[in-house]
Each structure stands twice: as structure tokens, then as C-alpha cells.
Amino acid sequence: MKNIIPVDVTNAFFNISDTQKVSECLFSDDTQKGFSGLNVGIISMETDPPHGGEVHFDGDEIIHVISGVLKVVSDSNPNESLRLSAGDSCIIKKAEWHKIYVIEKAKLIYITPAKNNDHRAN
């Protein structure tokens, strides 16, 4: 269809640039490091992420759980965790190191800054 683009969200996420242009970006595409604006994805998680945590230095992250159960931990709250179930959301503030743990197979929507992010080794 002209001006309407189907997207398979099992293999791709969306980048919303600083100029509000939306692009489809394959998860396997290494060029995503050059994006600006926000990345938006809908993902399923059956296991914990393969890293020891992540951080977004240029802005806040939004997580909304569609189904399942997750636990979020952060460096500034080492003795606490936030449990998120279907319908729950959270904002992870800019520059907060955090990790998500899968309690029950989950599907979620994330919105993150496209640039200046990092991951820790396990």
C-alpha cells in the first residue's frame, strides 16, 4: 500500500527520529547505533537478557508489560525490586543502570533513547 508500511515486530523495532520520521529497524541490523530520537519495540521475553544490565544516558526509558511478569532492579535501589505484571508500566530514569528479570514469559513494549546506551557484561 502506498504510504502504509507493514512491519513484523517479531524481527524489528521502530525508530522515531528527532524530526518525527518513523523507520523500521531490524533487530539484526548493526546500523541502529547511528539513529537519533527514540526506539520503540514490542518484544517477547522467555529468559533474562544476556547482559548484566543496561543504561540510557540520553533519556528515560518506558516499559509497559502486555502479558507475563517481570522484575526490574536498579543500582540506586539494590535491595528493592519492582514487579510488573500485565497492564503495569514503569519509567526508568535517565542514567539509571537497571536489569529486567523474567518471572513469567512476558511480552512488553519499550521506548528508549536511540543513542548513548550501554550494557554491562554478566
Task: Summarize the topology.
Layout: E1 12-16, E2 22-26, E3 38-45, E4 54-56, E5 61-74, E6 77-85, E7 89-92, E8 98-113, E9 117-119
Brief overview, please?
The chain has 122 residues and is mostly beta strands. The protein has one domain (12-115): Jelly Rolls. Helices cover 0% and strands 55% of the residues.
CATH topology, anyone? Jelly Rolls
The helix content, as a percent range, equals under 10%
Count of discrete structural domains: 1
Rg to the nearest angstrom?
A: 15 Å
Q: Number of helical segments?
A: 0
What is the residue-mean pLDDT, rounded to a whole number?
A: 93
Number of strands: 9
Major beta sheet summary:
7 strands, antiparallel
CATH architectural grouping = Sandwich
Structural shape: globular
First-last Cα distance: 44 Å
Q: What is the name of the CATH class? A: Mainly Beta
Find the CATH superfamily: Jelly Rolls
What does this structure look like?
The chain is an all-beta fold and 122 residues long. It has a single domain (12-115), classed as Jelly Rolls (Sandwich), CATH 2.60.120.10. Helix content is 0%, strand content 55%. It has strands at 12-16, 22-26, 38-45, 54-56, 61-74, 77-85, 89-92, 98-113, 117-119. Strands 1, 2, 3, 5, 6, 7 and 8 form a 7-stranded antiparallel sheet that branches. Strand 5 and strand 6 (77-85) form a beta hairpin. The chain starts with 11 loop residues before the first strand and ends with a strand. The model has no long low-confidence stretch (mean pLDDT 93).
Features:
globular; two-stranded antiparallel ribbon; 55% strand; seven-stranded antiparallel sheet; Jelly Rolls; 0% helix; 122 residues; mainly beta
